[in-house]
Structures are given as structure tokens and as C-alpha cells.
Design brief:
alpha/beta, Spore Coat Polysaccharide Biosynthesis Protein SpsA, Chain A, eight-stranded mixed sheet, 11 helices, 36% helix
Length: 292
Amino acid sequence: MLAPIILFVYNRPEHTKKTLEALYKNKLANQSELFIFSDGIKKDANKEEIKNIYEVRKVIKSRKWCNNVNIIESEDNKGLANSIISGVSMILNKYEKAIILEDDIVTSSVFLEFMNKNLDFYKDEQQVYGISGYCYPNKKIKDTTYFLPIGSSWGWGTWLNRWNKINFNAEELLKVVKERKLQKKMNFNGYGFYEMLEAQVSGLVDSWAIRFYTSFFLKGGFFLFPNVSLVKNIGFDNSGVHCSTDNHFDIVQNASIKSYKKIPVVVKRNIIKKIKLVPDFSFWHLIKIKIK
């Protein structure tokens, strides 16, 4: 059975349309079930924001994007983090695996194929917490797929029995990291994931992803990645909650996978050295400054 696809949308009609059009062109789209969660209007939303929310809802209803499309419109505004946590939990509890997208992720035509193959390969590997369709910038990794001790929220998939192990309580997570003196180790290749967690606890941001990462990091978990990116984030245009203008990740999405095979769940040291997390790929580096 193919994994259901979950898409979270809010108030970006053009981004949403591009995301859905790319998804529609995927090889397995006409065999897949899609669940679209449309968040509600914020209490302080202006006329333009309200208009865009209704435009988004027109877009998601304008076409049969997959074999079966289910639309869940929220009357209240949950916010991105709560929407994702509750929406992913709902679908995983029914289907036990899922592929997750947000409204600014344009996918390659082989994205669904890649995700489904690997969700099947690693369904019983408890150390594997997710499959990523995104590939961090790197120095030409030759392995078709590889593992890293970090995740990605740009087109990913997971399983119910992994999701249920996640602790989304940021205060508890921060306490454990400090007690075990893991601040430096948590900051993969020097990137400030620990500062992101501090920002979550301080109320500067509301991120489900940093809590997800910290939780599986503490359990010694991994994500599987492709050696070419099967997704492109089109949200770095100041249109999103957590996005600033940036083109560091305007990279290949028309990639192809020549073959699929399961590999040992091992993180290779030589691959870690090739991964480059650009310091300003998001707004997180600014958070570090604010905390100080």
C-alpha cells in the first residue's frame, strides 16, 4: 500500500498551486491518497491575509490532484507547528506511515516513488526516524542514499511507531541535552541546532521540527537522504513564517533515481564531512544573536 500524502497549507495560493502541480506530475500521484490540512484565520489577520486563505482553499479544490483528495479545513488557527503535529498524528494513527509536505515544497516527478520505496525498506529499522526527499548541499556524494544523524522537514516521511517515540516538550528536551552535556554534539557540523531549541523554549519561535530532531537525536536516530535533491523549497521569498530571502537551496529538482536498494543503517564519517549546512539558509542564525 502506498503511503498517504499530507499537505499543510495556509495563505500562499501561488506557492500552494506550484506545490500541487508538481505533486500531480509525480509518477505515483494517480495511485496515492492526499490529505490537505488548511489552517484557519488568525484573529488579527488583515483583509489581504483573509483573502489569500480563501484563495488557497479555491486552489486545493480546483483539481483532483491525486487518486483521492481529502480536505480538512480548520475553523481556528492552530499555527504551523500544532497543525503538523496534530495532522501527522491523525493520519499516522490510521495508515501507520505517511509522506509530509508543506505549501512551498516543489517535488521531482520521482519523489513519491523514492519515498515509498524507502518507507518500505526501513519500516522495521527502529533507528531510522524518517526519509528525506531533500538533500543538503554537499561535495558530490556518490552513494545513491546515505544516513545522517539529522533530519529535514522539506518533503519527508515517517512511520507511526517512530512518531510515537517523539517528545514534543521542548523544556524537557532542553533539560536532557544540558544534563547529558550534548550541546556541542547536537550542533551537527557546527550548525546551531541547540540554539534553535533554546529559541523554542524562550518563545522566540514555534517549531515542531527542532523538537522532532532533538527527540530522535537523543535516541540515536537517523534520517535517510538521497544524493540529489528531489525537492525544491520555493518559500525563501519572505512569504513564509520561517523563511527569509535566500537562494542557497534553489537547486536541482528534476533528478532521477537509477535504482533503489536498502543499505546498512550506518552513518559514514566521510559523508558527514561533505555535508554543508549554510549558516544563513534560514533565519535561525539570527535567533542565536537574539538569545545572547
